[in-house]
From TrEMBL:
<keyword id="KW-0808">Transferase</keyword>
<comment type="similarity">
    <text>Belongs to the pseudomonas-type ThrB family.</text>
</comment>
<feature type="domain" description="Aminoglycoside phosphotransferase">
    <location>
        <begin position="43"/>
        <end position="280"/>
    </location>
</feature>
<dbReference type="GO" id="GO:0004413">
    <property type="term" value="F:homoserine kinase activity"/>
</dbReference>
<dbReference type="InterPro" id="IPR011009">
    <property type="entry name" value="Kinase-like_dom_sf"/>
</dbReference>
<dbReference type="Pfam" id="PF01636">
    <property type="entry name" value="APH"/>
</dbReference>
<dbReference type="GO" id="GO:0009088">
    <property type="term" value="P:threonine biosynthetic process"/>
</dbReference>
<dbReference type="InterPro" id="IPR002575">
    <property type="entry name" value="Aminoglycoside_PTrfase"/>
</dbReference>
<dbReference type="InterPro" id="IPR050249">
    <property type="entry name" value="Pseudomonas-type_ThrB"/>
</dbReference>
<protein>
    <submittedName>
        <fullName>Phosphotransferase</fullName>
    </submittedName>
</protein>
């Protein structure tokens, strides 16, 4: 069947090829031939805004090769739909193809990439300004609702998502690569991070991983995955959702701004919002700095392993240096960790 002629925003050749490849799959979702594809962002996946000749907008996600398989993506979609049906969180609906499936395929080069389509949601990423603590209070409440749902939801048969334990975050089976490969990491910095990673491992072992502490989480509630519209806050992009420590969701929320002076205020607001919905033990709150550093080191490894990505490419040697600085500060503040 001939591929419809779809307009594609001017991008580097590889992304233009990707957009051309997914265009052929979009007919399965009933998108009209004149649909325009514009790149929104390229991070773990490439995300496009699809605008039809009728003006209707959808969001198309082209999944990274060899990251999430079709079963894992369907599992992500199952949780999203359960959250929507139960009224837990505002998040765009997953759109199904004519055959009822929510995962499609596009051939790019010699490989097959998975494709998913979502409703378009209005809003913008909350800015890092004086109003950010207000949004974090709301995010804390939303996160508590997510966690409460996670603990009680009966997952469907075949549900499968990755695990974000220590070994698969910073250990020998790390999903996002070896933190030692961080760009610009010298011997002195590696020694500091090695001490910090060992301290994190000890703290997590002492903390535990009971069902009250560890379960299905969003795992990427950073600002880029939040949409503020009026007084409403929506959550998007469950692509990294998996089984991890619940308190790690706060650490994800301050991804890439861990060094900002506003972080203590954000943490206080998040905790207040969380406690307005569900209990948060003192021991859980005390672990937040541990998860913040774990996430920062995890992101430093991710940036090194995803140098071809638009987002990761922005976090080079300066980000590694900041990670070492945060680790030094952590080791000073928590010498017994």
């Amino acid at each position: 069947m001939p591929v419809p002629d779809r307009a594609v925003d001017a991008r580097p050749a590889a992304l233009a090829d990707a957009a051309g490849a997914i265009a052929g799959a979009l007919g399965e979702w009933g998108l009209p031939p004149a649909t325009r594809l514009d790149l929104i962002t390229e991070s773990e996946n490439a995300t496009f805004l699809a605008t039809g000749s009728d003006g209707r907008r959808r969001v198309v996600r082209l999944h990274r090769a060899a990251y999430n398989d079709a079963a894992a993506i369907r599992s992500e979609h199952a949780w999203i739909e359960a959250l929507r049906q139960d009224g837990i969180v505002r998040t765009p609906a997953v759109l199904a193809r004519f055959d009822g499936a929510t995962v499609g395929e596009a051939r790019i080069g010699e490989g097959i990439r998975h494709v998913a389509v979502f409703e378009f949601a209005d809003g913008a990423e909350p800015p890092v300004d004086r109003d950010l603590p207000r949004w974090f209070e709301r995010l804390g409440a939303i996160t508590a609702r997510l966690h409460t749902h996670s603990r009680t939801w009966t997952r469907p048969a075949g549900f499968t998502r990755r695990v974000w334990d220590f070994e698969r975050s910073l250990g020998s089976r790390a999903h996002w690569g070896d933190w030692r490969a961080a760009r610009g990491l010298d011997a002195s910095g590696q020694a500091v991070l090695a001490r910090a990673v060992a301290a994190i491992e000890r703290a997590l072992a002492a903390y535990g991983a009971s069902p009250e502490q560890f379960g299905l989480i969003h795992a990427d509630l950073r600002l880029a995955n939040l949409l503020a519209a009026g007084d409403e806050l929506s959550v998007i992009d469950f692509d990294d959702c998996g089984f991890g420590w619940f308190m790690a969701d706060f650490a994800a929320a301050i991804s890439f701004i861990e060094h900002e002076p506003v972080v203590p205020d954000l943490q206080a607001a998040w905790v207040e919002g969380y406690r307005s919905v569900a209990p948060l033990r003192r021991d859980d709150a005390a672990m937040l700095p541990v998860f913040v550093l774990l996430r920062r080191i995890l992101l430093t490894a991710w940036a090194a392993s995803r140098r071809d990505g638009e987002t990761a490419s922005r976090y080079g040697e300066w980000y590694t240096a900041g990670t070492v600085e945060l680790a030094e500060r952590f080791l000073t503040q928590f010498p017994k960790a």
